[in-house]
Design goal:
Six copies of one chain form a homohexamer.
Chain A (H helix, E strand, L loop, with lengths): L12 E15 L5 E9 L2 E7 L4 H6 L5 E11 L2 E11 L19 H14 L3 H20 L13 H19 L5 H10 L4 H4 L10 H5 L2 H15 L5 H12 L15 H23 L28
Parallel strand pairs in A: 3-5
Antiparallel strand pairs in A: 1-2, 1-4, 2-3, 4-5
Helix pairs in contact in A: 2-3, 2-4, 2-5, 3-5, 4-5, 4-10, 5-9, 5-10, 8-9, 9-10
Chain lengths: 315, 315, 315, 315, 315, 315
Amino acid sequence: MKRGIKHYSIGEAFDDFILIKEANRGVASNGKPFLTLILRDTTGEIEAKLWDITKEDEDVFTPEQIVRLSGEVNQFRGKPQLKIMSIRPAQTTDGVQVDDFVEKAPVAKEMLMEKLTESIFEMKNPKLQRITRAFIKKYQEALLTYPAAAKNHHEYVSGLAHHIVSMLALAKELHRLYPEVNKDLLYAGIILHDLGKLKELSGVVTTSYTLEGKLLGHIPMMVGEIGKMADELQIEGEEVMILQHLVLSHHGKAEWGSPKPPLVREAELLHLIDLIDAKMNMLNRSLENVKPGEFTERLFAMDNRAFYKPLFEEN
Amino acid sequence: MKRGIKHYSIGEAFDDFILIKEANRGVASNGKPFLTLILRDTTGEIEAKLWDITKEDEDVFTPEQIVRLSGEVNQFRGKPQLKIMSIRPAQTTDGVQVDDFVEKAPVAKEMLMEKLTESIFEMKNPKLQRITRAFIKKYQEALLTYPAAAKNHHEYVSGLAHHIVSMLALAKELHRLYPEVNKDLLYAGIILHDLGKLKELSGVVTTSYTLEGKLLGHIPMMVGEIGKMADELQIEGEEVMILQHLVLSHHGKAEWGSPKPPLVREAELLHLIDLIDAKMNMLNRSLENVKPGEFTERLFAMDNRAFYKPLFEEN
Amino acid sequence: MKRGIKHYSIGEAFDDFILIKEANRGVASNGKPFLTLILRDTTGEIEAKLWDITKEDEDVFTPEQIVRLSGEVNQFRGKPQLKIMSIRPAQTTDGVQVDDFVEKAPVAKEMLMEKLTESIFEMKNPKLQRITRAFIKKYQEALLTYPAAAKNHHEYVSGLAHHIVSMLALAKELHRLYPEVNKDLLYAGIILHDLGKLKELSGVVTTSYTLEGKLLGHIPMMVGEIGKMADELQIEGEEVMILQHLVLSHHGKAEWGSPKPPLVREAELLHLIDLIDAKMNMLNRSLENVKPGEFTERLFAMDNRAFYKPLFEEN
Amino acid sequence: MKRGIKHYSIGEAFDDFILIKEANRGVASNGKPFLTLILRDTTGEIEAKLWDITKEDEDVFTPEQIVRLSGEVNQFRGKPQLKIMSIRPAQTTDGVQVDDFVEKAPVAKEMLMEKLTESIFEMKNPKLQRITRAFIKKYQEALLTYPAAAKNHHEYVSGLAHHIVSMLALAKELHRLYPEVNKDLLYAGIILHDLGKLKELSGVVTTSYTLEGKLLGHIPMMVGEIGKMADELQIEGEEVMILQHLVLSHHGKAEWGSPKPPLVREAELLHLIDLIDAKMNMLNRSLENVKPGEFTERLFAMDNRAFYKPLFEEN
Amino acid sequence: MKRGIKHYSIGEAFDDFILIKEANRGVASNGKPFLTLILRDTTGEIEAKLWDITKEDEDVFTPEQIVRLSGEVNQFRGKPQLKIMSIRPAQTTDGVQVDDFVEKAPVAKEMLMEKLTESIFEMKNPKLQRITRAFIKKYQEALLTYPAAAKNHHEYVSGLAHHIVSMLALAKELHRLYPEVNKDLLYAGIILHDLGKLKELSGVVTTSYTLEGKLLGHIPMMVGEIGKMADELQIEGEEVMILQHLVLSHHGKAEWGSPKPPLVREAELLHLIDLIDAKMNMLNRSLENVKPGEFTERLFAMDNRAFYKPLFEEN
Amino acid sequence: MKRGIKHYSIGEAFDDFILIKEANRGVASNGKPFLTLILRDTTGEIEAKLWDITKEDEDVFTPEQIVRLSGEVNQFRGKPQLKIMSIRPAQTTDGVQVDDFVEKAPVAKEMLMEKLTESIFEMKNPKLQRITRAFIKKYQEALLTYPAAAKNHHEYVSGLAHHIVSMLALAKELHRLYPEVNKDLLYAGIILHDLGKLKELSGVVTTSYTLEGKLLGHIPMMVGEIGKMADELQIEGEEVMILQHLVLSHHGKAEWGSPKPPLVREAELLHLIDLIDAKMNMLNRSLENVKPGEFTERLFAMDNRAFYKPLFEEN
């Protein structure tokens, strides 16, 4: 079984396949071009410099390319860096694929799909159910592979679906506790709230923001899509607008990107459930990396707090 | 010529036609129902109580109904109030119409339409021009009658078109001063930026917010509409998204309702032109009501400031 | 069955027992003293004036006194007011008691106590369990009768226990969904987080802030109490301080009254669960009072928002 | 024609005159002193190190000195750096002057002066006109050469006059559109609003803040100067105070340096015109440096936004 | 000895001299004009209505007029109101003067002047001393009678001088504790910091803001005055600018009206001393009015807090 | 007499005793471990690298160890660094002790203790006096040695006591100026307000935050301690709670760590005195390091301002 780049110490030799996540061209002080590579496998990332590159090197060593690399783990300005001895692109005969090098949700795609289908079966309002089902059908492939965000929380393959399915579980329980809640509306809102990210983010492996993502953002894009979808399905009635409102308001406040705050009970609940699941995902993943008695690193998306793991945690 | 309710003094008799703007039912301390009417003509508004009403009265004296009213202007808790002696609904033979009682833009509809058409003729980018023209065609009637807002600025008949046409004049000059500016994009942004208000506001005479207006707001609605229109016209290319960005960002900041701030030069300029024209409209209308050496009342939409009219203004 | 003051219309006669919530002395323009009474039953409150009072009246008609009152519901400045014809204090033979006039949690005290006990049985960490049990024992009577707040949420008899028990149900489910969470710590935090309110609030029927509540607040008071209790029980170890931290940080931010923000996973979760249960309580109680298609009144504690009840809610 | 330092690539040789903008002494790890020079011509700036300097070197290579330098453009920590082979101060016979190395407004001084004079001729209020003319006369030389700011906008020779003249053009058009505006007052405000910068900034070539600029700032200084000037010219009347108010309030808000917000129509307009011209100057200069389809670098003075240049810009 | 309006109860007869502070004309529901008078003596204020007034009444009953009034103290909307039976303007033979009806500082003018003179004698820096002395001479009369503010703190006759003298006492002690402090600079700053209020406020008896006060504010006005005074006295050197900086920055922050924050040690100290003396004045005057065990009314200028007077205060 | 590390220039040899303040292990690019040492004496700090360390080295060269070190002062990335030639731990025979290397308050411990005792003698309220005396007795040793903070102000040995004693001097004077102030309460508040720091901070030489300090903070800890102490001393009455309130509110605002703002006169005054003494300590220490005509470095704890020392300061 593979060891993973995160587990190498300074000074150790490395000889394995690894994936290029980013490749940026620079010019050295001797005037020759070089590449700064960010390499990754499922355990983490490491930087490497490829010096004195040719034009062909630039065409070959690009993002999402797997390479066979041998070298040594060094340290540069306090951070590990991989010193390259030899490097070549992987070939089909190597039997490796991009999927092997990226982190995935702890739940399989099939199971995630099953949970989504189950929730849709539970829905009784035909309008909400039809719109929701139509979107799942339209985006099924991407929905099951995209991360929920470029960083911060659920930033792994199938992260978005994992996030949705966790939220649905929470919603189910909250509906049991507060039966006044309209479960259909809440489910529909949860499933659709972040689908705009499929257009906002550039892809699964090297996730960045698209131009559309930067200039419009996933929330207004998705509100527009729901309108179009309802037109196509010839669905009318307040359900459509209320569902758009849930998506529009799910960031909770204007300064967080929702031009309208939640003004419907299920919109408020959607916002809170989203918050809880995102925060628990971040917290659990950070606390996993520290021992009892230690603090995590500062978490930017949680007001830059460092969290403490009590000594009495059995880990 | 009519005198206008604003010009009556306390103690004077009133006997004229006037328009009901609002009618709210109450119950008096003697247990009998009454109506609180807000009456208006082009010069202003006044409150009146209609006591001991019948069921029929309630059906007749409703918003947008013109009435013939005779009575006296009194004062109640420091504000004028119209004491009703007799009141009857206007009849077709009276030769009065709602239009006679509402304030209008200082420029005629025909002239506003002409200016819009002129601007569209100036545009050279066919995509931007076609989308803009399609919207004007679709909404022409409402666009030429709606106010630009429920209160604060351009809150009169044709206020929206008046606002757009003033902004176009400013844009033309700014383009002359800063020729780098893309005039076509700026024109298109100006014409479309507030069209969502046609759905956000309930109407011309008694302007309030629609449910859709409250839950979604005019900005996301219009961004969605531009997307649909481009689909219908089969227009593709960055123009569509950039135009959506202009509309989306024209409030300037997330906390003011724009989930994305202006990130394109013409978007920034659209925001600033909108600000200037709205503020000048408010300021000029307020300062008109005071004499040199006086302060206006506090203007809520301008950070609650009261403005001073210098003594050396010839008014 | 009693009708409840909320259900009387203007002009109707009233003849029933009702509870005095507040009684304030004033002096009328004729120089004679009078009492402004706030009267309440389980359905709501109404104001009444008792004119020309004697010294004895002042001693008799005081808060928490039940009275037999006959009169008529009038309207004064837009609000209902009870015009008093006759009034006398209730006597033991009348068979009425304060408890009949105050709103209560929808779950019986016994059931609430049972749920608390159950949760304590689930706890495995002996230190956390002992402290929690000791507090429940110490404050059992008050804990089962106090409201959770003077207004806004769970502001009824047994409101505090009802709030705690709802939060425990949520916590149980969250622990199932995120098994990394330390359930014992979270349970202990939930049960103790608001116990300081038993000293911050003045009582069950006429709830206001005590001097201690105003100058210290329930959070620092409870942090101190946990320290004393641990000393008494001779419990040492990080559990005590972490539990104090949970109570200290449960308002989430310094500006909301927590000098330290949550820095332990269960502290963050406690804050979020508290938020959800308080908000759902407010929302559900407000939406109950409106029909589909209507907005609630503005809810001050929810950023002054008015919430919409969709037409498709079957209510 | 000269090429300009901005257009050299890494690895290229440089052999030309260039101006020293800053010179800071350091001590190398070998204990010997060196100079870090910031060199500039009209196209941009570059850093260079002059090692092992003598006392004489320190006296010669100072700010505002032109040097003949031959060397090579290298890269250091991701930024270009000029490696010095030989360097000597320019001599009178070299025929170069400081003026050749600093960026200038795109409009000639004479034209700027003409435009200022024209505006003053348009003014009808004799008090406002006399004060304005007196200031132009007093500061004419500096006014025509100073930048409008140390950085951000119009930060080039004659930048202040260029900024004023652009604002006057805008004002003229706004007065045409909103004839209620007092053009004389607005013109006077525009011409004087930033004259305090002549004392706040240290000079034209190496612009920094004077002590007076740091402790008092240009706004209070200029308000004081207007008062003195009016005394000298024996001008009385509200014009003086209103003009002081325009200068005082032109930053718009207390937190932006205006102890009073604009409280006169022309003060509000002055603030908005200043904003537009400053922003358009920044935006146009930044967008000039990027190709269609690219974003500019982040602009600190525009809320740190990066702006996008659409693909359909013909540049 | 006079009793003071504050000490009259509802229902009591009043027959005494009293001062008109404000007089506002209104029109009653019967169409006849009336005056709303605010009357005051040293103990407080009361409102009164003078019905059916003649043109002469309007000319006679104006602010700062003393009147002989007999009537009765009533209550109107929860507040005391003086019902007028008869009223006449005071005559010279009545032997009353405005001074008898306004609150004064607890220290006599002569003593305040003596303290100011003493402090100036202590100063050693001749420049600071000369400027300070020149201002005291120029404004002596007003300085010894004006209040320090229109409301909030030291809002009584000689309030400004009282405030300055208290601050000087504090400064003297702080200089003893922190001998690094430049006492001359601090003294000069204290004496001059609020002199601009002599132009910002309209007068001693009926204190409101002048137009200059509203549009420029006392801080920029005083900074300008110091500049002029130094010119007149032909004083040069950093002292002048530093003294202007102290005045400019004494509100501490831009949003509180100081375009520059304190950047000199004595400027920081001036700001803090001003804060302490203003706050102590407000607090002491409010706490004087409550008994141990009570809270004061909310103090707007102290973040709207109500302060508690402990039971163990002997009052 | 010792010279102090602050006074060495780049290139100079160093051969003296010095104290290790921090020691952090790293791994060099050659794979070998090294220590980054922060060394200090009373004049300042310097960094040093100890390469190729053994396991023993790690055990020996730890914080609070004095070492004999010879080497040379170099420069690394713009900051001085001590290049180590030889290093050995100090021995008992060397006659050096930790105390020689740390900065101390300018007043001796004995004098500080005397001042504290004096103040307690002045107190007349027996409850306040007994609690205060008990705390001084309990913490005497630590109180006389701890700094008042980890950085910013009074960050030296006996800093806390020095801060308290300065505040007491100020309080005494303020009481003279405002005799309404309850001196006993103010004295007690001053002496106890920061005692929680004895638990919040880790020690005198290498001061960092304890876990308890991070999770609870000194304010809530001290409020709890006062409660326990009063219980132990069997003191009852409002004094205890009011004293807790003073400690709780002394940071002035919720966002600065005080869940309740000052609501008692002496609480407000305590907050202000604390502010003045902390700020004067910071300012005086910074200004000591610059010459007249210069600015200090930016002071983070004073809103990041740099302060100017006027030319006319004789220093």
